[in-house]
Design brief:
about 475 residues; alpha/beta; Nucleotidyltransferase, domain 5; 7-stranded mixed sheet; 6-stranded mixed sheet
Length: about 475
């Protein structure tokens, strides 16, 4: 049979890609049609996304693919764009790493208790959530919300420009801490308490929905939140599998049929985000390879441009348990001189300080592996689930050293791949929507037989167990 082609547009925090995905009835083949950097713009006062440049690159990429049956776009979550009454973009969307949300959580909790917000949304408390970005705008007197006629997530902004349809895709809506699973709708009471106008809300649309056309090609909503798409491509036939979507952020979680909004979930500060096909992703956001990327950027600016393979070789020659960081310490959230922050963190927590680049990287890698163990144990306790393997998907699945460390730290086998999980999951949802695939289970069974998956068995378990309590002490 001739292959069916779909276009999967995948926008990440540092780069975007337009993928031509072919399905011949037995396997998927991904070809990169266009790749481009995603470079935020720092003005003297605000860090913005360059939405217009991204839109230009999206259209260039689509133009490089011929014969596609459909288009789907996925993106990061939490951020939003505002449109005026004429449907035009009011201002460049603000980046979730912009410091405007400093103090915003406390400001919101004065208007609605923290516990009530969690009971209504089931979402992890992070200052980058749209709720606190919007609250910061209100607190700081921004006029934009008064002028806005519609609010769209970043993915939905591009979907609107592709089709003219103003909708908010379900998996994206659930990242904002404004969606109430019990209502299956926006939580207007939270918005009213904070002062967010509710007339800017758009209808929520499920993944798999066709929302219009672009140049005669159907535009189908995948799981527009990139992690939601990546989890669709988890190559597992087991119900006892956890996933780690590894990239700039690490998102570690379980796929469930219902959200878990309980005392234990609240205490663990885990999140319940929507998934494809009536699923929920019980997960936690972990700072992830952002710390590594910023270390590399700092050293590159100083004339040392390390490849990932060079970093691996460096770390393999360093004793692994000298010092640790808490990857989610607020010091590591903004961009900047990450090696200096790692050294400073070790100093202020009374640990030996890394003396060179290799020791900085060893500290980061081991700490990430231990944080994965900690979060996995939290998720198992909260959900009362059994987990016998961890699937690492996304670009970070190519980091063999960190994959092995993760297997060692968690005491569970790690299966790494696919690296392009997000684009793959995006394409799978489109192929299901157009009748080329019967469902997620069949797609995962197909992916589980792929020859590019790599399995890592736990090693040196006694040594990893011996030092774990030292890491836990940093989280207390």
């Amino acid at each position: 049979m001739s292959a069916k082609h779909v276009i999967a547009i995948d926008l990440g925090a540092t780069s975007g890609r337009v993928m031509d995905v072919a399905f011949d009835g037995a396997q998927l083949t991904l070809a990169e049609a266009h790749r481009f950097p995603n470079i935020p713009v720092q003005t003297p006062s605000v860090l913005y996304w360059d939405a217009l440049r991204l839109w230009h690159e999206i259209t260039v990429g689509i133009g490089k693919v011929t014969g596609a049956a459909s288009i789907g776009l996925d993106c990061w979550g939490v951020d939003y764009a505002l449109l005026d009454r004429a449907g035009e973009l009011l201002a460049n969307p603000v980046h979730y790493r912009d410091p405007r949300t400093n103090g915003a959580l406390e400001w919101v909790f004065e208007r609605m208790p923290r516990r009530e917000i969690f009971e209504r949304t089931g979402i992890q408390f992070m200052p980058l959530n749209a709720l606190y970005q919007l609250a910061a705008s209100i607190r700081d007197g921004s006029p934009l919300l008064e002028q806005a006629a519609a609010m769209l997530t970043i993915a939905d902004l591009f979907n609107y420009w592709l089709t003219g349809s103003k909708t908010c895709e379900f998996t994206e809506a659930t990242t904002m801490q404004l969606y109430n699973p019990a209502l299956a709708d926006w939580d207007r009471e939270i918005m009213a308490a904070v002062g967010i106008p509710t007339d800017i809300l758009t209808p929520i649309a499920q993944p798999g929905t066709t929302i219009g056309t672009y140049q005669g090609i159907d535009v189908i909503l995948p799981a527009c939140h990139d992690t939601g798409s990546a989890v669709v491509a988890m190559p597992s036939t087991s119900e006892n599998a956890a996933y780690l979507s590894s990239g700039t952020w690490s998102l570690l979680g379980l796929e469930l049929r219902e959200p878990i909004i309980s005392d234990a979930a609240y205490e663990a500060n885990v999140t319940n985000e929507g998934g494809y096909d009536d699923t929920w992703r019980l997960l936690k956001n972990i700072m992830g390879l952002w710390v590594v990327d910023q270390c590399r950027a700092t050293w590159r600016a100083a004339g040392k441009d390390y490849s990932f393979s060079q970093l691996t070789a460096m770390v393999e020659n360093v004793p692994p348990f000298t010092a640790f960081i808490e990857p989610d310490d607020p010091a590591f959230l903004p961009p900047g001189d990450m090696p200096a922050r790692v050294i400073d963190y070790c100093r202020r927590t009374g640990q030996p300080t890394p003396q060179n680049h290799a020791e900085v990287m060893a500290t980061v890698y081991v700490s990430l592996a231990y944080k994965y163990r900690y979060v996995l144990e939290q998720l198992i306790a909260v959900s009362d689930s059994a987990v016998d393997r961890l699937h690492i998907i996304g670009g970070g699945s190519q980091n063999a050293l960190l994959n092995q460390m993760t297997a060692n730290a968690t005491g569970r086998p790690v299966i790494a791949g696919p690296a392009e999980a997000t684009a793959t999951g995006n394409a799978i949802v489109q192929l299901i929507a157009i009748g080329e695939l019967s469902g997620v289970a069949d797609a995962r069974a197909m992916l589980s037989g792929a020859g590019d998956l790599v399995r890592y068995e736990p090693q040196d378990s006694a040594a990893w167990d011996e030092h774990y309590d030292r890491f836990l002490a940093l989280l207390e």
